[in-house]
Amino acid sequence: MTTTTADSVTGQDPLSPEQVRRGRRTALLLFAVGFGPMILATIMFYTGWLNPVGHTNEGELLMPPVPVQALNLETSNGVPLAERFGADQVDPNWLMLVVSGTCGSDCEELLYLARQVNIALGKNAPRVSRAAALGSVPAGLEQRWQAEYSSMERLRPAPGAAAAWPTGVSPETAPRILLIDPFGNLMMHYGTEHTGKQMLKDLKHLLKLSQIG
Known about the structure:
Strand order of the largest sheet: 1-7-6-3-4-5-2
Radius of gyration: 22 Å
Mean pLDDT: 82
Largest sheet: 7 strands, mixed
Helix content: 25-40%
Distance between the termini: 57 Å
Structural class: alpha/beta
Strand content: 15-25%
Number of helices: 5
Low-confidence stretches: 5-10, 30-36, 47-53
């Protein structure tokens, strides 16, 4: 009687322990090369470690960072926003997210700020996406949206879920721009008290530190 094994069917010999160990080392090396810079950039930004110029962030830093899952937001097609982030993403991006209750003049100011900062990034602009989660939008802005903010995706709360906003963020009280890294961490937030120059400074610094996103 002949015993058939998976190895005999495929014609391949079983991997030796050394080959298995070598494969694991290779996988770890690939992960380190791909995502090590992003992890290092986050550590450097929050601690100032190895930062000779003593960079100080301009936005309101969140300590600790808040996971994007806490926002309970989804796309118009019902896809959770959190699914766009993480180490398994092929082409991860940073995200500038404008959040507001009723989108009045302050909210429009931040929509404009996010757009202009994104444009000012130049060749790095594709590394940063824009989105908005707005409670209500006046008819006038709704009519102008496609012409002025066509590249800014509209998000909505997931059915039956409420957002757990970070400390210092209350969209019903004051609109904010949330900055989310490619791993899905809310790192900083900005308001009308910040200028485009300040936000651009932070983003340029982060994108320079990291080659991911």
